[in-house]
Design goal:
Helix content: over 70%
Number of strands: 0
Number of helices: 6
Distance between the termini: 20 Å
Radius of gyration: 15 Å
Structural class: mainly alpha
């Protein structure tokens, strides 16, 4: 398994342009929230299980990379779940809208950057993105 520093170095290769960085600092947390909210919206016990398993897997990944990162992402995930619960009946529409708009901005950022998104090379970069955005909070 790569170290957190190695992940950040690789992720940073396609995130050098200041406009792209700014877009990512806004869009990545929104995408993370929208995914959590969409999973949260699955009704009943099945939804609870899917949310629990998904969060457990993602947070395990973060804790294995860095304890402080795992704690920070646990807090952020909790905030996402809390905010998703506040959306009530509007959760799916809101989460899908946020997801689509944030991804459009992400791709615009990469067009400006002139480099493809990192997750095209390794899907694990989808979890590295939020860590990279929040890295100043836990280093």
């Amino acid at each position: 398994m790569k170290s957190l520093t190695q992940w950040f170095d690789l992720y940073g290769e396609s995130h050098q342009n200041q406009t792209n960085i700014l877009i990512h600092k806004v869009a990545v947390p929104l995408i993370y929230f929208s995914v959590v909210a969409l999973i949260f919206s699955i009704p009943g016990l099945i939804g609870d299980i899917v949310l629990g398993v998904t969060c457990f897997a993602a947070l395990t990944f973060y804790f294995l990379l860095n304890i402080k990162l795992g704690l920070l992402m646990s807090v952020y995930t909790g905030i996402c779940i809390y905010c998703a619960a506040l959306l009530n009946d509007n959760i799916v529409v809101t989460a899908v809208a946020i997801f689509v708009v944030a991804w459009i901005f992400q791709f615009v950022g990469h067009k400006i950057e002139g480099k493809k998104p990192s997750f095209f090379d390794d899907v694990q970069f989808l979890l590295i993105g939020p860590a990279w955005v929040f890295q100043k909070l836990f280093r």
